[in-house]
Design brief:
Elements (H helix, E strand, L loop, with lengths): L4 H20 L4 H8 L3 H9 L9 H8 L3 H4 L18 H10 L3 H22 L1
Helix pairs in contact: 1-3, 2-3
Length: about 130
């Protein structure tokens, strides 16, 4: 079965994105290949777009890289087919999104602070 230029371009871009995400998360090709139960050479072929990565492998790749499928596909905005909530984003949601951009050590610190406040509230409620 032949592949169109558009399909080839899609798989090259997907492979490039996977490689970038993999490197930014310090995951090796070997680790991802093992998660997919394929050889490192096969996984390398996925990354350069020489082979098409199976659709069934994409959730495993996303999970291993700790990203959503949308992020794996390079979707940064919600698709137009999804219903959009009207009105401004609540402040707490903006804060959560800002926290997600912090370095992991600062994220842990914020999580500890939240845990402390919630624990104090639970004790007061009893």
């Amino acid at each position: 079965m032949t592949i169109s230029n558009q399909e080839r371009e899609f798989f090259v871009e997907l492979g490039t994105r996977i490689a970038q995400l993999r490197k930014s998360r310090n995951v090796t090709q070997v680790q991802l290949a093992e998660a997919l139960n394929v050889s490192q050479q096969t996984f390398q072929a996925y990354e350069v777009g020489r082979r098409r990565i199976p659709v069934s492998a994409l959730p495993v790749v996303a999970h291993t890289l700790s990203v959503s499928l949308e992020e794996l596909f390079g979707e940064t905005e919600p698709t137009t087919t999804m219903p959009r909530k009207r009105g401004p984003v609540p402040r707490w949601q903006q804060q959560i999104e800002a926290i997600a951009q912090l370095p992991k050590t600062q994220q842990r610190f914020v999580a500890q602070m939240i845990d402390t406040v919630l624990a104090q509230q639970a004790r007061q409620s009893v």
